[in-house]
Structures are given as structure tokens and as C-alpha cells.
Design brief:
globular; 13% strand; binds adenosine-5'-diphosphate; binds magnesium ion; 39% helix
Length: 388
């Protein structure tokens, strides 16, 4: 026990106290989110910079405990590669077409990968996406649990709903391209510099959408549950605006000289296929990856990476007490440690079979040596540029 205790040190980081393995040095705060607090550190064993998440009060109630368990089981880590910024920060920058399309390409690859693990995210948002200066990108979470209805809410926190698709807001069925809507919102925000649909609640959110995109068709309305349909049909009718008005030329960076697809008209074409209220008419993930604004980066191996282990959805349905969740998390940690040990023993061998469901999957392309990244990195890093 005391021997184990010796491996740890306690440090104050911001308002938080971390008791952590001594291998992690030089802790400094970098972010906080719905669940906790993230700091950067140096891992003296691997000699790499890492990000470490501390869940705040994971056992305060059953919802938090379940979420902690889900996060741990899915992500398999609370320590990960250190990235440079989250996407909220990057959206504020004046990105050229190369960077913008490359970031979107990676989001789409990550989403496709999640889908291939049987996970449809439904709640992608910029604060849960992180990027490095070389424009590589990772998705940090796995979205809404399947059992989460639209009324699902983490108790004391205000959750961002701006990026949620109409079918989520309206409580309809959904399919993979529900995640395309979020990508469309993010892309639109990159171009405008403002949130596309900043609703204060579900109702206001829906208003913001129809004011800009127009009231959806009668045929769409017919697919709504009666009460929702009644509400939606009784809203004032809006025609919406053409995409040339929603995204005028002046908002775009200048056309790329290298890639003919990377120009304002193509970006707008992609936006008008993603920001479509009716999922039946919205572009699919595969087609978005083939779109001329995106497919300049298309790399067969990245797009069709080996599918990860299938996500066990029964996790979402389980009900336990806080004490039971604690026990389950403890068991996961022990299992993880012995797995690490095994991997250590047969270097890389066991690794592939047991690779955690999606831990590297939500991250797409860390391969900075691939040609795609190089061409975007050569003029230094993603630099903030505030002239919009
Ligand atoms: N690997 C990382 N590299 C850099 N920053 C990170 C990393 N992981 C998280 N962050 C920062 O911490 C914030 C919160 O992380 P997140 O995993 O979303 O926590 P939560 O689950 O509490 O929402 C992110 O928005 C980002 O700014
Ligand atoms: Mg978060």
C-alpha cells in the first residue's frame, strides 16, 4: 500500500487537486467541460505531452456515475495525447479553404469510424473536438446514449444544443446522417464566425432553423409525432433564404490556387447539401466524403480504416446504484491494467485484438507523415487571425 502510495504525488492545478502518478509532471489547466477538468502534463516515461481528465464528483449521483462508467469503458483512457486547441477556438480563426476542408474531412472520417462501430453520435459539438496545429483532429466523446431521449439532461449543467439535428430536436427517428447536420453547423460557423442556430431552448432552436432554411415540406411534417407535428405546423411559415444569401461570397476565404474544388461555390454547395432539415434529403457521410470540397484529401485507408470493436449498447440500458457503478469502474480499471501489462509483455501482439472500442477511432489520422497533412502544414500552424 505505502509502496503504491509512493508512486503518486499531489498537485494543485487551478482550483483542482490532482493526486496522480509521479510520471506525470508539470500539470497545467487547459480546459473544462461537462464532466470535469482537463490539464496538460508531461509524461516522463513516454516523454510525451498528454492531456489528463479529472472527473469532478463522478459519484454524486447515478447519472454521473453511469456517465463516468460509459466514458471510461468507451474511451478506455482519461489520459490522452495532448492537442493544441478545441474547435471552439479554431472556429474563431480565419481558416483558408485547405484547413477548413481538411478539418471537415477528418471530422467525417471520425464520424464514419464511429458509425462503423455502431455508434451514431447525435451530439457533436466544437467543445468536444480537439485539433493540433498541424490540423489533425480528434473527437472526444461518443454522444448521446441510444436510450437518451431528447429530454435527457445532465442535471446541473446547461448543455449546448446548437448543433443538434432537427430529428433530434423533434424526437424523430434518426440514421447516420444525423451527424452530418452537426458538421454542417460547424462548417457554417467557420464561415460566418457566428453560431448558425443559437437557440435558447428546443423551441427557439427550431425557430432559428426554419427562419433561415424555411419551413420543411408537408411530407416531412407527416413523419412527426402528433403533438410535435401540431406545434410545428402551427409555427408561422418561412420561405428561408437561398444559400447565396446565407453565405455570401464576402464571408469566404479566397479560392485555393492548388485545388480547383476548394472554392467558395463548392463550399456553399456542400453546405446546402448538409444543412437540410429533412434527413431523407440530406447528404450521407459517404457522399460528403466524395464531395469535391472534401475529396481532395480522400485517402482510402483513412476513410475505410478497420472497423473497431462493436459498441455494446447494453451499457446504456443498465441501471445500477452508485456503489455498483463504482465497483464496475473499479473492475474496468483492473481489467485495463492487466491488459496494459499483457501488451507490455507481447509488444504489439495482443494490442490489435484487444484494441479498445474506438479509443483511437474517434481520432482520425494521427499520421502526420501522410501527404494530406503535409500539404496543409507547410505554412506553419493554425494561427489566430482576427480580421473577420
Ligand atoms: N487531448 C486534449 N488536448 C487538448 N485539450 C483537451 C484535450 N482533451 C480535452 N481538452 C480540453 O478540455 C475540454 C474539456 O474536455 P472534454 O473531454 O470535453 O471534457 P468533458 O467530458 O468534461 O466535457 C475540451 O473542450 C478541450 O478544450
Ligand atoms: Mg466536453
Amino acid at each position: 500500500m505505502s509502496q503504491q502510495a509512493n508512486q503518486f504525488h499531489t498537485v494543485e492545478v487551478g482550483d483542482s487537486t490532482f493526486t496522480i502518478l509521479k510520471r506525470y509532471e508539470n500539470l497545467r489547466p487547459i480546459g473544462s467541460g461537462a464532466q470535469g477538468f482537463v490539464c496538460a502534463a508531461y509524461d516522463s516515461i513516454t516523454e510525451q505531452n498528454v492531456a489528463i481528465k479529472k472527473l469532478s464528483r463522478p459519484f454524486q449521483n447515478v447519472t454521473h456515475a453511469k456517465r463516468a462508467y460509459r466514458e471510461f469503458v468507451l474511451m478506455k483512457y482519461l489520459v490522452m495525447e495532448l492537442m493544441d486547441a478545441n474547435l471552439c477556438q479554431v472556429i474563431q480563426m480565419d481558416l483558408d479553404h485547405e484547413r477548413m476542408s481538411y478539418l471537415l474531412y477528418q471530422m467525417l472520417c471520425g464520424i464514419k469510424h464511429l458509425h462503423s462501430a455502431g455508434i451514431i453520435h447525435r451530439d457533436l459539438k466544437p467543445s468536444n473536438i480537439v485539433v493540433k496545429a498541424d490540423c489533425t483532429l480528434k473527437i472526444l466523446d461518443f454522444g448521446l446514449a441510444r436510450t437518451a431521449g431528447t429530454s435527457f439532461m445532465m442535471t446541473p449543467y446547461v448543455v449546448t444544443r446548437y448543433y443538434r439535428a432537427p430529428e433530434v430536436i423533434l424526437g424523430m427517428g434518426y440514421k447516420e446522417n444525423v451527424d452530418i447536420w452537426s458538421v454542417g453547423c460547424i462548417m457554417g460557423e467557420m464561415i460566418r464566425g457566428n453560431v448558425m442556430f443559437p437557440g435558447t431552448d428546443h423551441i427557439d432552436q427550431w425557430n432559428k432553423i426554419i427562419e433561415q432554411l424555411g419551413t420543411p415540406s408537408r411530407e416531412f411534417m407527416q413523419r412527426l409525432q402528433p403533438t410535435v407535428r401540431n406545434y410545428v405546423e402551427n409555427r408561422p411559415r418561412y420561405n428561408g433564404y437561398p444559400f447565396e444569401k446565407l453565405f455570401p461570397d464576402v464571408l469566404f476565404p479566397s479560392d485555393s490556387r492548388e485545388h480547383s474544388g476548394l472554392k467558395a461555390s463548392m463550399a456553399r454547395d456542400l453546405l446546402c447539401r448538409m444543412l437540410v432539415i429533412d434527413p431523407e434529403r440530406r447528404i450521407s457521410v459517404d457522399d460528403a466524403l466524395m464531395h469535391p470540397y472534401i475529396n481532395v484529401w480522400y485517402d482510402q485507408e483513412e476513410v475505410n480504416g478497420p472497423p473497431p470493436a462493436q459498441y455494446d449498447h447494453s451499457v446504456d440500458e443498465r441501471e445500477h446504484s452508485v456503489e455498483q457503478w463504482k465497483e464496475l469502474i473499479y473492475k474496468e480499471v483492473i481489467a485495463y491494467e492487466s491488459l496494459e501489462q499483457q501488451q507490455h509483455n507481447h509488444v504489439g501482439n495482443a494490442m490489435h485484438n484487444h484494441s479498445p472500442a474506438c479509443s483511437s477511432s474517434a481520432s482520425t489520422s494521427n499520421d502526420t507523415s501522410s501527404g494530406t497533412t503535409d500539404s496543409i502544414t507547410n505554412d506553419s500552424s493554425v494561427q489566430p487571425n482576427h480580421h473577420r
